[in-house]
Q: What sequence folds into this?
């Protein structure tokens, strides 16, 4: 067999070198592309991690303070004693569940960790003191109905989205604001026959209602509804929702509920009349208002003006029991803001129908507001139904029931301007 000519061998060698050179060129191009993409990915990941770390540090410094307050061994034993006592009672109508975030009077209140509630002066303008209480009470008195044995606003107006939401106030004493904003949202939905369902902003109410109290708690239960009527409030969802003009900004990472120390130290956010970035409305175009603001009931509370409010209601509705007044308001107009005193044992509520001082040595802690939703009866025990502002991990998925004998110390509401 003849060998190929030398010229052919040279041609084959040249072709081989060209082919080999082309492969290496492609490999080099692929390698650089892979390296570039990999490097870009690592850079983006690093930027994301830096942003996450920055936001975490910022939130921990501005909102969370020192993190959740942990129980000392002594405090833990004290709270477990409450829980075990309640659960050992054969005739108890509720079950306790140990709450590792529960406050103790001896640890916090007695040591003046909580700011003192400001007393309301009796020389308040009449609009702020009474609002539309007299006219609304007269209207309520003219409404005649055989009230049912049980009523639940969540079922009566089941298509109102706000009825089923449970907020978490976080480390801010804004129970009054979250409750009032929820009531306002419900009442807009009810008055509009489901056609309007904005979430009224608890953030806007907390920061911009100068006479309400901010993160240190409210001392005048009518104040948020008076503010809604006179100034108006924009929309805004719960923390982390990014919904509406001004969503709630206090993170719920300090407990359910947070220690009382937070409420004393947390500064009320600055009032900024501007919607969040990319929201499709201007602040002034997003405002909703109330048509009337009024007391439904007033018995106790922090002010010496409450007897005047109570006297007005009793004069307009003589002989009508507080429970009947509250029921009629719920039945015809919807949920309302109700305030009462929280005892140590209430923090450990797990389920059932709560009775104050089931544990006799349980101390009073602070005033608290929640949304009154209805009433009912279970096992022969009558009760009120509430939505709390401590998130869904507490109580009956964020809700609780209280003996019907325990009427709230004060209750307020408003009619929406539609």
A:
């Amino acid at each position: 067999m003849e060998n190929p000519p030398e010229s052919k061998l040279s041609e084959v060698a040249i072709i081989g070198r060209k082919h080999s050179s082309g492969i290496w060129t492609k490999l080099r191009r692929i390698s650089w592309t892979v390296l570039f993409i990999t490097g870009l990915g690592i850079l983006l990941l690093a930027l994301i991690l830096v942003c996450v770390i920055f936001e975490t540090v910022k939130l921990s410094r501005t909102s969370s303070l020192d993190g959740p307050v942990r129980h000392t061994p002594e405090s833990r034993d004290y709270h477990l004693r409450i829980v075990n006592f309640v659960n050992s009672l054969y005739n108890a109508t509720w079950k306790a569940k140990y709450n590792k975030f529960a406050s103790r009077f001896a640890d916090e209140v007695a040591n003046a960790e909580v700011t003192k509630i400001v007393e309301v002066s009796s020389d308040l303008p009449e609009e702020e003191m009474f609002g539309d209480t007299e006219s609304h009470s007269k209207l309520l008195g003219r409404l005649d109905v055989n009230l049912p044995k049980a009523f639940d606003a969540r079922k009566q107006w089941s298509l109102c989205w706000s009825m089923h939401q449970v907020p978490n106030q976080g480390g801010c004493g804004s129970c009054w604001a979250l409750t009032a904003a929820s009531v306002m949202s419900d009442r807009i939905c009810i008055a509009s026959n489901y056609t309007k369902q904005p979430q009224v902003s608890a953030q806007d109410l907390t920061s911009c209602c100068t006479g309400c109290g901010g993160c240190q708690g409210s001392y005048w239960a009518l104040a948020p509804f008076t503010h809604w009527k006179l100034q108006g409030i924009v929309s805004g969802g719960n923390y982390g929702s990014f919904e509406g003009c001004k969503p709630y900004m206090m993170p719920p990472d300090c407990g359910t509920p947070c220690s009382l120390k937070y409420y004393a130290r947390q500064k009320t956010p600055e009032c900024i009349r501007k919607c969040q970035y990319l929201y499709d409305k201007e602040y002034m175009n997003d405002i909703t208002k109330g048509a009337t603001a009024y007391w439904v009931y007033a018995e106790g509370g922090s002010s010496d003006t409450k007897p005047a409010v109570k006297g007005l209601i009793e004069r307009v509705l003589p002989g009508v029991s507080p429970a009947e007044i509250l029921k009629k308001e719920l039945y015809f107009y919807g949920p309302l803001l109700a305030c009462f005193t929280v005892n140590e044992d209430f923090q450990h509520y797990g389920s059932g129908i709560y009775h104050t001082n089931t544990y006799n040595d349980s101390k009073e802690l602070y005033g608290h507001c929640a949304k009154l939703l209805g009433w009912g009866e279970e096992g022969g025990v009558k009760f009120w139904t509430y939505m709390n502002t401590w998130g869904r991990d507490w109580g009956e998925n964020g809700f609780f029931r209280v003996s019907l004998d325990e009427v709230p110390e004060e209750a307020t509401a408003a009619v929406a301007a539609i």
Remarks:
- The two ends are 104 Å apart (CA to CA).
- The chain has two domains: 1-62, 73-416.
- Confidence is low (pLDDT under 50) at residues 12-17, 56-64, 112-122.
- The beta strands are 94-96, 151-152, 290-298, 336-343, 349-354, 364-378, 381-387, 399-403, 410-416.
